[in-house]
Task: structure prediction
Amino acid sequence: MSTNLPDPTGLPGTGVHRIEKVALTAGLHDRSARIIGGGIAGLTAALALAARGASVTVTERAPELTEIGAGLQISPNAGRALEALGLGPALDAVSIRGRGVRMWDSAGRRIATLDFLAHRPQARFRMIHRARLIEVLAAAADAARITLRLGHAIEALPREPLVIGADGLHSRVRQVLNGTEAPFFTGQTAWRALITDPEPPTDGTGWADLFLGPKRHLVSYPLAGGLRNIVAVRQRPDWQAEGWSHHDDPAHLRAAFAAFGGPVPGWLAAVRETGIWGLFRHQVARRWHDDSRVLIGDAAHPTLPFMAQGASLAIEDAWQLAACLDALPDQPAAFERFQSLRADRATAIVALADRNARAYHLSGPARLAAHAGLRAIAAVAPARLTARFDWIYDYDPTRLGA
Result:
């Protein structure tokens, strides 16, 4: 027995694009699921469960399914799950295909190039505005007859047979399972901004440019619609609260990166609005589930944004949780299998992002030595730089035993 996701023809805000049909075993046709959180993790989990026949309700405290963030990168590991759900063409229509990463010093001198497209030409790296991704997921959820309850704050956690905590960084479900936890402030503060791209790509592909300076770095990449995403991070002794809803004067961003060269001054001169937030390190959850409730995404394993894998890990989680529930009728056993598949990988990626947080901000002789080493490898064996991340990008979450 199989089930199909219907293919809507009108995606809000994205023009007219078809979603490919996906057929999976309907092993969950007699199951119902409540998902708390209507973000990337929650909507992807809803689609993965509905594609297997489950009846899914998503509750979201916000009155609308909107996303206030800016850009994000969806690497091939997560893309394989989205493509298996039939969302590839819709995503391609609203994203830029990533070529790789170009690394520069703060003066704008090239350090190294990681050409992921040349290394794996069949794989898709997508650079996309968060709002466009949410629109694609929400349109597919509507077509799949997933129930969305917006403006629905959870006062007490439901005791239903299957409850999925996709409620993000300050998860209520995580708190119930793990108690109160104190995050660690990293001493780093980040700005984010969107500008009109002065040189938008003409072939639908683009590079993520990473500029490394003493105690600060900046990353920028193009988005569809002629936009450019900017994230800039600096070390500072004070701190800002977590979350992206805090606004700052763009003059502060420009002052913090006034010594940077290359295209950075022009980009920052174009910034009219910027958000700011403090970066905190959270532990991977000790306990991911009990018999009826399970965590996915940031609720289980928040990560610093220095590997661009937060959204991708959440998408991987969503697919593999649904696959485990489909494969194992015993729900606690399915939850245990899910955590065993996900915990080590998530922990390794979180740790790598932590290391990058330090490596990006080197100063003095350590910075010069690190940049010289990267330049030497890039000149002699550039494939070594890209191959270092094969374990992340070549991972296929649609293979249950991956």
In short: Confidence is low (pLDDT under 50) at residues 1-21. Residues 186-279 form a domain with the D-Amino Acid Oxidase; Chain A, domain 2 fold (CATH 3.30.9.30). The chain is about 35% helix and 25% strand. The CA atoms of residues 114 and 388 lie 10 Å apart.
